[in-house]
Amino acid sequence: MNWTRLKAALIVSSLIGAGAVAHGADSPKIQNGGTVVTVPGVGLAPPSAMNGFNPLLTSSAYDSEAESLMYQPLLWVNRDFKINFKLSIAKKIVVGQKDRSYTVYLSRHWKWSDGVPVTTADVAYTYHMLMKLGPLWPGWDSGGFPGDIQSFKVRGPYAFQVVTTRSVNPTWFELSGLSDFYPYPAHSWQHYTVKQMNDNMTNPQFYSVVDGPFRLESFHAGRYASMVPNPAYSGPDKPHISRLIFRFLNSNASVFFALKRGTIQLGNLPPSLYPARKQLTDDRLTISGPNWGFNYLGFNFSNPKIAFVKSVLVRQAMMHAINQNLMIKVMGFGHGARAYGLVPGNPPVYLSPEAKTLLRQGAYDPALADKLLNEAGWHRGPDGIRVKDGHKMVFTLYIPPSMVRGPTLLATMFAKVGILVRMREMPFNEIYEKMIDPHSKNWQAVYLAWSQTAYPTGGSVFKCGGVQNSYHYCNKKMDVMMDKIRITPGLDALYKFQNYFTEQQPVIVLPNMQLFVMAAKNIHGVSHAITPGGGFYPQFLWVSHDK
Fold first, then answer.
1. Measured between alpha carbons, how far is 299 from 470 in angstroms, rounded to an integer?
2. Could you tell me the pTM of the whole model?
């Protein structure tokens, strides 16, 4: 079901495994050159087109997959949720008294592809652009930006200081707040207006100055985007391949047949076609994930036709009606993990004791679901569908192409407790467009996934009036609990919040599936390039040319 994830702000952390920055001693000798053709979403989700490459203005995970190859993060977060300063633009952070000032020092060796050093001028450009964009920036009101920031000051070409309005949780602010201060090329972008930046969303010339391992070579709308190595990359791992091409395919099945024909060399094997993997005789299988995020069934709480979802008893009943073990067996052929909250269970670093117990025991209990729905006043009608005050418990679920299996299972499980689900298939971009329209009350339910930042709070997704809250969900108590995470050191506040989230189910959390990735046998380094968290780092790929 991990068909896509929306980028929770612009700073989806680089959750790369510690071993992914070095090649094993027993590996064959690395060769340079060659082209790798893949699809957007590899290692993460079913395919979709890329629509833009400006990280200040985009929020799709498909776009950010390419953007993350072009721009190096201020803070590179490892799989153990520690900052890897060797791969970060920053070299250290000094926290001041009362956890209110954060002075960040930059490494001096990073340079843009035109030779200009990466400095605090680039960080300052980003900060002022985010303030200028305001809510137009998808990460607004997440990670403490801007509400918890009192001041931003440049302390020299390689140091800047952020002072917060109050004492904050240092771990949360570093991983979810300071990460917003991605340096972008001020000397290249500062003369453009926001409109001009929008107009150049796919223009390779606009993105000619980069500091990441790759740069955008060409873009062909609806067809493909190609990237080539940045020869001036300052990082420790230079790309081995000569070109990376993202082909824009529109369905899981098309990926399978492209792999079979050899028109792509790297792509996700659709779970439904897992038994047919032996047909791909020239490919090897890598199992990845589950990704660092959560899958879910989400509702439009502003739509009066499905007002029943406002009842916590109804949402709890839906949670207990879902047989997650069956979903994992049918959809992932046993490769997956139960999930009931917004904090991922792999690795279990942030899980509360209660969450760990729930994951071990499971929550499937259709008898309890029936009981809760009866308590909420919804009783079965003659056709078995629940009715209250003349209204049936029915909703329409938007699903992406070729992803019918998961929703069909959900519909069958819900039907057993008297809930009718109607499914409507449409392209991801159309679903997303309907969701982000703040005035749209027409859509009812969506079948999606959401990535998490390195400190998994959900950002503004569930905050009353939050920029990313496309669901119009509002719970003042949850807002207070989210705020306490920001100001309380340690994990106790996060534990209480995640437990309350699981009880409330603002979205119905679904199991996390692992992904099956197929690569041509002459493509090496896949296990390094595709991380357990769903990150894609093709600088670790190489192509063997031996015949």
1. 9
2. 0.80
